[in-house]
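for the recovery benchmark. tokens below, seq after
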């Protein structure tokens, strides 16, 4: 477990002291416990759960009910990490009122400390309304997966000078509104570094180079537990697909061969009781 509870102030201080912030996604109790054990600063219950946990092609089908279900499980497993819930598609774009209502549910029912939502200046009315309700907001710029259709696929963003500059303006506007941090996803490293240097709030990069104030990876990606081709920005720190397949195959083989269960996996019975039971069986 991390030594002390991570707060917004702590995250801000990490930026000031140039100490990288580490964020990972988690979607259930065990993952939250493991993230805590690894002293991860921020746990994000990402809507990526729609893809890695539920097998959807995109994050679009993810609903508030799904997010709250997973947030609750993660909240039960975290202790000191700062917990962020990802607002799903359709839960904040429709109106500032919907955005506040759903953000409140994340805190009240999901047990998170803050919410994250995708988009730039066009989302300011919703972001401002959530902030006015006293709920911390993490922004998300660059490749915003909920807009995958509009973006024409999971593509790198901010590759032209104009789009990179527009992203900087979005970042400054989100900071001015009061966001406590921004995720920068799949953008050129030079653009992410320039944005990070000009902001006073921390940026958390994914596919955005080393110039961000922190890094995030999807739990299943970093553990090697995904069945899609890995994005260029993923580093696999384990191969759990291999480990789990080997374990499951061994289980199957040992059941087939009679090696499992062994005597130590079962329960004995008092000899007298057993004798009586056998006698009863003989009488039937
Ligand atoms: O949903 C998610 O996992 C995310 C991260 C990739 C930042 O938004």
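predicted aa per position
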């Amino acid at each position: 477990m991390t030594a002390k509870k991570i707060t917004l102030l702590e995250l801000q201080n990490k930026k000031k002291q140039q100490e990288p912030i580490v964020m990972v996604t988690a979607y259930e109790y065990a993952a939250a416990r493991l993230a805590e054990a690894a002293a991860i600063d921020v746990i994000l219950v990402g809507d990526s759960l729609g893809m890695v946990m539920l097998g959807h092609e995109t994050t679009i089908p993810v609903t508030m009910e799904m997010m709250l279900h997973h947030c609750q499980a993660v909240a039960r497993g975290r202790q000191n990490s700062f917990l962020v819930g990802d607002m799903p598609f359709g839960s904040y774009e429709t109106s500032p009122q919907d955005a506040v209502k759903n953000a409140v549910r994340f805190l009240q029912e999901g047990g998170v400390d803050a919410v994250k939502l995708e988009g730039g200046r066009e989302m300011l009315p919703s972001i401002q309304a959530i902030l006015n309700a006293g709920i911390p907001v993490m922004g998300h710029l660059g490749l915003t997966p909920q807009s995958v259709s509009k973006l024409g696929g999971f593509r790198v963003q901010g590759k032209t000078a104009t789009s990179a500059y527009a992203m900087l303006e979005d970042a400054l506007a989100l900071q001015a509104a009061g966001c406590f941090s921004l995720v920068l996803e799949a953008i050129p490293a030079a653009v992410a570094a320039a944005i990070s240097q000009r902001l006073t709030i921390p940026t958390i990069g994914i596919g955005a180079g080393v110039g961000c104030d922190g890094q995030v990876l999807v739990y299943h990606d970093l553990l090697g537990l995904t069945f899609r081709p890995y994005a260029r920005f993923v580093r696999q720190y384990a191969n759990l697909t291999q480990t789990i397949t080997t374990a499951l195959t061994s289980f199957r083989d040992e059941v087939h061969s009679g090696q499992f269960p062994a005597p130590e996996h079962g329960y004995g019975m008092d000899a007298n009781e057993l004798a009586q039971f056998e006698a009863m069986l003989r009488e039937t």
